[in-house]
What does this fold into?
Amino acid sequence: MEEKMSTVKWGILLAVLTILFGFILGAAMGGLEPQIKDYWQTLAQPGLSTIYQNDPQKITAIINQSWKMLQRAHMHAAAIGTATLILMLILVNLRAKVIYKQVGSIFLGLGGLGYSMSWFLVAFRAPVVGDIHVVKAGIHLLAAPSIGMLLLGTTVVLLLGLRMAFSSKNSL
It folds into this structure.
């Protein structure tokens, strides 16, 4: 079993790191909500007159949006990290070349971590910029490749699984 798992060890490490990131975010959100929101308030203050037109309600609105983005980071990290870990456990048991397993697991691991981190970065950048849509557009360079890696990694597992399921030799 250990020999099998070593082929996807980097992907597993990334998936567990993603899950840990999600758990840490959840704990921080549960225990430090006022401190996080106060920090965002501090980040927004330099833009009070220019970005927020001296309207504290606009700062409150962006902080509420940032909180939602942080919740997304937490939920995506926990869920996608777990899903990619399961996909890697399936992948390691498929009959396929080691390189397919390695690449598939790294794509899954990097994709999950990158996508979760993109929501985290949106949450902490939005109070500075003042516009959640602008921040999302700016973080697209991290989010889009991460989504692509998740889709490619999942497709590798699917195709290898289908190939094994429908192979008369049951080998790849």
User: Anything to note?
Assistant: Helices lie at 2-6, 9-44, 56-92, 98-129, 132-138, 140-166.
